[in-house]
Amino acid sequence: MARITAGVGSSHVPLLGVAADQGKDRDAYFKPIFDGYDWTRKWIADEAKPDVVILVYNDHASAFDMSIVPTFAIGCGERYAPADEGWGPRPVPDVIGHPDLAWHIAQSLILDEFDMTIINEMDVDHGLTVPLTMMYGAPEAWPVKVIPLAVNVVTYPPPSGNRCWALGEAIARAVNSFDEDLNVQIWGTGGMSHQLQGQRAGLINAEWDNRFMDGLVGDTQSLRSIPHIEYLRETGSEGIEMVMWLIMRGALGKSTKCLHRHYHVPCSNTAIGHIVLEPVDGTVPPSPTLEGNNAAAQ
Ligand code: DHB
Ligand code: FE
């Protein structure tokens, strides 16, 4: 049976992709950022070794634009190329999908009454490739299969934190019902507090960010109820990216423990935030509808 064994939270700052691609990742400015991922790189390569990562991220007008804005979308394709974000695609390998598991998750989520958009073809931008770089460095091929799960946090209204958490629980139910033995991780990316435009451009709220990271650990569910307006007021216009971390947290079940945590300012216009979590009690509530809808589908 497939199981979610760990969750990872990480910012996805595009500048870090540039630094890594140009070999500047241990220069004075970047060193304290990349050093904070050394523990995770060793853990993921030597110990955790996931077969598949469900990578929750947001597209930044690369694959989608104002012509189509899916709230939640799942990549069911075979592979995804790095997107050209204006200065050519990053020189990183294509991302290889896991269509069998992705289609299984898509079916389970939709019968669980989460109306996912299904994507078979798209390019993936820094939101997805930068976390892979932070966790795996610069390999010839990514050593893990990736199921992209894209969330709209660019155009209002984004989904609520509560809905994101519930989607995470539904993802855990989906993974738990996949027959093949697979070691699956879920990553939540984006954040931390940042605002890229307007009068408050450059805003960073380290105290709030750290309280958010505290709330991911243990069995509290207090982060579920943070309203959009609080993200906007306290963490700037782009801080809402943090709701994606709640999908990761929801998928880890009742309680978690923290294996590693890192926070550093500055990192471009934001703070780098990174956390590695393990489920302590991975129980998720049963769905009121999944079993009945599954039976009806057979
Ligand atoms: C920055 C951060 C982001 O999350 C992003 O998508 C783009 C830019 C930044 O801090 O520069
Ligand atoms: Fe972003």
TrEMBL record:
User: By its UniProt entry, which SUPFAM superfamilies does this protein fall under?
Assistant: LigB-like
Gene Ontology molecular function: ferrous iron binding; oxidoreductase activity, acting on single donors with incorporation of molecular oxygen, incorporation of two atoms of oxygen
Its domain of life reads Bacteria
Asked whether the UniProt record includes Cell wall biogenesis/degradation among its keywords, one would answer no
Which keywords does this chain's UniProt record carry? Dioxygenase, Oxidoreductase
- Residue span(s) of domain Extradiol ring-cleavage dioxygenase class III enzyme subunit B: 9-272
- What InterPro entries does its record include? Xdiol_dOase_suB (IPR004183)
Q: Which Pfam families did the record assign?
A: LigB (PF02900)
UniProt KW Ligase keyword: no
Q: What is this protein called?
A: Protocatechuate 4,5-dioxygenase, beta chain
**Native species:** Novosphingobium pentaromativorans US6-1
